[in-house]
Amino acid sequence: MKILENTEIRKYFNNSIWLIVDNFIKVAGGLFIGVWVARYLGAENYGVLQYAISFNFMFTALVNIGLGNIFIRELVKDPGKEAELLGSAFGLQFIGAVTAFALINISSLLYETDSLIQLVIFIFSIQMFSGAFQSFTFYFQSKVISKYNVMAESIAFIVSSGVKIYVILNDMPIEYIAVAYLFDYVIKAVLKMYFYQYIKKGLLALRFKISTARYFLKESWVIGVTLFLAMVHNRIDQLMIKNMLGVKELGIYSLSADLPSYVLLLPTVLINSLMPYFVELKKNNPLLYNRRFIQILSASSWASVLVCLIGISIGEEAIDVIYDGKFEGAYQPFILNVWKILFVVQMLFVNIWLVNENKQRYQLYTNSIGTIFNILLNFMLISRYGIMGAAASTIMTMILINWVTPFIFRDIRAVGLISLKSLNPVLAIRGLLGR
Description:
α1 crosses α9. It is built from 18 helices and no strands. The longest helix has 51 residues. By secondary structure, the protein is mostly helical.
């Protein structure tokens, strides 16, 4: 294809090969282990596990704080400040991890009465500290050397999977499954730090600078709050289902909601890895930047539609056979939840556009509207339609955020039009042909 004849595109394509290998391991292995864990636990205990994950997930924005694309943008612009940028980013995220860990466990003790759920929540909360090492992931992305990140993620995944298999084969209780998940976070955090030291020999040179940390907070706080709001409308349905319908219904719904996540692993990493490319392209050739952005978005959107249609066509029989009939009723919400693939892919591109245009504050506005809308819909629909109501609320919220709210604000109407225009398949074909 002509598009691969471009040197810059080829560099990112080669980098993406590593990401594809990593995600193949995660999707294939993760689906296998995930199925085994779900079948082993059954709907009720799987609901407990997913509730603990969702409870923790609500606080992860305190660790991430929307720093990823901001850090990449600044490092691409000024590579000479690497030690200061990386050290300040790591310090901020570590402070966020301590805060998140404390808030999670205080909230659990105040809100939860079940001691088993409290214990599982506590085990998962420890992984917040590994989130501080995301800074090294951002570094590898900015330098387009994802092979080191891939090696760390893959080794950690393989070890964690081995521990899960051991737990299942020895018929150990659910809290040991939670500990097995923790292995993945700890090992990849340590390995990412090791690989940075291996290639740069600069770990001890990292320094935390208050002025840089303040700049990061100033630039990223909007994205951080936006991430929190996104996490609320992505996970609030699961918390509400547990409290309104019970953990068994939550287990069934979580399965239908999580299956698309396996597919989203690859596009999430690939799209985020394009951030340095779009930063450089906008700086050097704004016209080509606009054309390439919508072409790549269009190709990604139509690939997502194809995946959704395949999932719907084979989903019912696949869920019944693979999960041994233990999650009866999961296919119906899956029909709706699978469309998250399309909307998340588009959201990832919108986030890149907003950061590149320095308009990330509008994410706060659009996600605030979406979160309020989602919570109200869940209250109305879960009580009436059960887990189908939760699935409908999720997709309706994503439609609102992606295709409606951008037109409320003049400064970001352009990205709303881009999202809708990307559904034109001609643009995808032109992009693949390099035109």
